Amino acid sequence: MKRSETPKSRSTTPASKNPNLPVVLLWGGTGGHIFPLVALKKTLSKRGFWPFYWIGESHSLEEKIALAEGVEFLAIKSGKLRRYFSLRTFVEPINIARGFFQSLAILRRLRPAFVFSKWGYVSLPAAIAAKCLDIPVFLQESDSIPGMSNRAVAKFSKTVFLGFPEAVEYFPDKECVVSGQLLDPGIDWGKGRIQSLRPKVLVMGGSLGSSRIFRSVLAIVPTLSEIDFEIVLGKLNSWMRQEFAPFGNVVCHEFLPQSEMAEAYSRADLVITRAGATSLAEIEASGADMVIVPLEWSANGHQWANARAYAGRGYQILPEAELDRLWASVLETLSSKRRTSSVSHVDGTEIVTNAIIERLVPWRNS
Q1: Strand, coil or helix: what is 243?
Q2: Domains 3-180+347-365 and 200-336 share a fold
Q3: Model confidence, pTM
Q4: pLDDT tens, position by position, 228-256
Q5: 3-state SS assignment for residue 114
Q6: Whole-angstrom Cα distance, residue 54 to residue 56?
Q7: Which of 272, 299, 294 has the alpha carbon at shortest distance from 283?
Q8: Is 14 helix (H, G, I), strand (E, B) or coil?
Q9: pLDDT digits over 68-113, tens only?
Q10: d(Cα 2, Cα 175) in Å, to the nearest integer?
Q11: Confidence class for position 3, pLDDT limits 50, 70, 90
Q12: pLDDT tens profile 285-343
């Protein structure tokens, strides 16, 4: 590792919007990886970078969000890197090669100032193509333990930005900057708690939801009538809305956009959540307490590593195998009232933007 640092968020002279400073954003996959790219785009655009392009998979969540943000979306094919045997393993190199040539054509046409990759196997062929064209690639790894895709993309990256300092050891030959998570700068995550006479618990299970967590909550709701529950089910579990319908102290949503998610955090005294890096950072910034239920089969055990990092900050971990203790965990955490105000957070988007500008100047003048 060449360098690991946590620079202060500082302002530099903003540039005017310049069509000679286009930026390509790479993939996303889930909300926890897509919304940080949106957050970074907002900060970059204030500093003169424009226009933006987004490379990803067609008919995906990132395509939907990119178009909603007014960003031109460019779909490519790619192969998935697997840790297990599959017959598709023999086909994937062909798909990666196809994605490489598609990316090469796109990047040669756009000639962006740089490419910023967040996560996902679609990022690999585009990162390789950018390297071949001498276009700087920057990578953000939000988790404590990086996945295969980001470890591969890092080989073609100029700088790796880290959400957790613990991830430094996985990039020994790269310049690393500990930036923290990339939260939307347009949202006041710590705007203050919304007080209520009744305790409020927010339940979420990541972008896709978690039927196991929701079923565990369903089992305790009848005995906790004095507590209000707000549940974000996710698309795959939207059918469970009818199971919660008989309870007057439960409100269900299929999905909440980030601005409404921030409002939900501010209403909650406690959030029951998976251990996605972005979600944990948002909740901590809002000031709500957490019961963290890591996904048992997350790649490389990264959710457990994320959860342990937050346990060191005083938050509670509840293993999925012990969800029968959820009732006790909820009451214990609510009664402790350990957290009554928001936690200030470092503006990761400013840190990343400043670092990119500093590293682009010699490149663009060469």
Answers
A1: helix
A2: yes
A3: 0.88
A4: 999 999 888 999 999 999 999 999 999 89
A5: strand
A6: 6
A7: 272
A8: coil
A9: 999 999 999 876 655 555 656 666 778 889 999 999 999 999 999 9
A10: 5
A11: low
A12: 998 999 999 998 877 889 999 999 999 999 999 999 999 999 999 999 999 866 544 55
Q: Are 286 and 262 in contact (CB under 8 A)?
A: yes
CA distance 4 to 10: 18
Burial track 297-333 (b if 16+ CB lie within 10 A, e otherwise): ebebbbbbbbbbbbeeeebbbbebeebeebbebbbeb
Name the CATH superfamily housing domain 200-336. Glycogen Phosphorylase B; (3.40.50.2000)
Largest CA distance in the chain: 68
Task: Give the CA angle between residues 173, 118, 86 to the nearest 5°.
Answer: 85
Sign of CA dihedral 129, 131, 137, 143: positive
Listed by start position, the domains of the chain span 3-180+347-365, 200-336
pLDDT for 140: 97
Amino acid identity, residue 320?
E
State the amino acid at position 248 in one-letter form.
Answer: G
| Fold entry, domain 3-180+347-365 | Rossmann fold (3.40.50)
